[in-house]
Amino acid sequence: MNQGITISANFTAAQLKTGCQRALALIHSPQYAPILAPYARVSRHNLDTGFSVPLAAALQAGAEHSAKDLAAVTEDMATAATEAAAGFSGMRLSWALQSFASACEGKDELTPVALAEAIRQIIEQMPAALPSSSPRQLHPSDVALTGRSSITAEDVFTMLSYSLLAAVSLPEQGSEDTDFLRDSAAATEDAYLSLEPDLVAFLMISLGLALGAQPAISDSDLMDSANEVLSRLPSVSRPAPITMRAQRLNFCILTIEGAAGVLAEYRQQTRSKDVIWAVGKTDFFGWETWKLVHRVSDPVSEVPDFAKRRNLVVVSPPPVGELSLGTEQDPTRSAGNSNVVTLHKPASRVAHRPTVIALTRCQDTVRDLPPMGVNVLFNPDSTERLKRLLESVTDVPITILTSDPASVALVKEVLSNYVGSSEMPILHAECESEVALLHAARHACAYNRGADPESRYQLAHNALEQAEATMRSFTTKDPFLRDIPDLKLSGEEVDSQSGWLMRDTVRGGFLVDDDYSRLNNLLVQLPATMDPIDFQTLEASLPKLAGVNADIHYYQGNQADTIIIVQTW
User: Fold this and answer.
1) Which DSSP string corresponds to 326-372?
2) Residue 355: is its pLDDT beyond 80?
3) In contact, 555 and 435? CB cutoff 8 Å
4) Which residue numbers delimit the DhaL domain (predicted)?
5) What predicted TM-score, i.e. pTM, was given to this entire model?
6) Whose CA is closest to 277, among 478, 481, 54?
7) Which residue, 203, 231, 259, sits at the end of a domain?
8) CA distances from 517 to 55, 100, 440, 488, 552 (A)
9) Residue 180 sits in which domain range?
């Protein structure tokens, strides 16, 4: 391969660092940022599952790196991208960077021939490693990396950029990560144009590396071509419709590690039928570490050994219901507001889905929280994953819910050093128990009609205050509940609840009665272990105190021997 090519101008860590700096400037520039936003962020979820966060994390790691060997820089870039990835395009990006880091292992620099070969292998192996639903995959034959008798590393990235520009401009590119409606007069409501978002990420990296090596290239034919292609990328009219199946699926993000074969064992044990996107590496001793992303309907039953997982993230399903196209002034026509749900015609009356993150250590609450719209961080024991979640938020304000001292301390540590994209403060509700957290979550997730971040923040704050005002908590060790007062509601409490029920609630884009609106609800958190006779006694005692019409839900907790009862109205 590549017979007769003269090697010159090897690819070094210094070139990579400069290229990352130029790529960062490109993706954040006023010219390109609005064009890339619909592809970089998949904002049908309140947490970003696109390539925006992992791309920025990788480029930032490369731009700030001080090492002089290429292996160290590429390894840290791959690690940053992998930690931040939360969806298909982000995982593909991190896989490509991980593969490139492997090609650079033990090397201070790469010859142009080795550089071209590493890129060719990445393009060749990616479809098998992380399959896409795109009808047309980028093939090594589509990418002309060599063709002259003398090439440099700069030539490789220039030719790669041209090849990626050609691929991005092809209308038949597709992706299961996100689809977009073609914004043209000829398009019908059902005519969708889909683009493989990770190709856009690779293009921005390649352009940055080409620009970093040749500063004068900004005025060249390459940038003219880039400006033309990127300016013609289809803009977003509205998010693609959410399928009935997607309404029940959560993104599950976790890390597994173990001896050789740990990934194969996970694939065999999981009950999920969706594709598992995996990016990992093996150390010198054969120890494997894998970042996994896949969709599940019930994470507790579908993720093997769920109770033992640490820092596992469950991204709640996207808001459902058909979004109205409305008029040009309809806020739902903006990609940045694609979590806006219309309540009814006229389309100007809209509701925003709040961003809520709950830190929990209880399996039963993990089942209930995502369907409400809550994103879950299960068994957190480090600050890094929470930091990444906050970076992924596509809308403000943010409400964080905790129920145990360890989680409270973790959140306070993160928030003490948090610098977000908005000056809007983050709401943090310290709940007394897991069942109190469930009650707060139902209020925090209620759609609100705040016209701007400040008003939405105030409404979110009011929702938490309302949650606290419509509950009371009791703790006991006696299954006969002899130390618990009468739980029947007074007329004043019923009136308070009736006033709360007059507020609109959205499910599936329509006004409906809230399934949590019964007047007397009991959320019971059971001890970690409980004698069956004691549970039977408790089950018989509660209706006597609260009335036969009380709505009673039981949850398995982690506390030693106490029973926690939260009454809501």
Assistant:
1) --TT-GGGSGGGTTEEE-SSSTTSEEEPPEEEEEE--HHHHHHHHHH
2) yes
3) yes
4) 56-126
5) 0.81
6) 54
7) 231
8) 43, 54, 14, 16, 13
9) 6-231
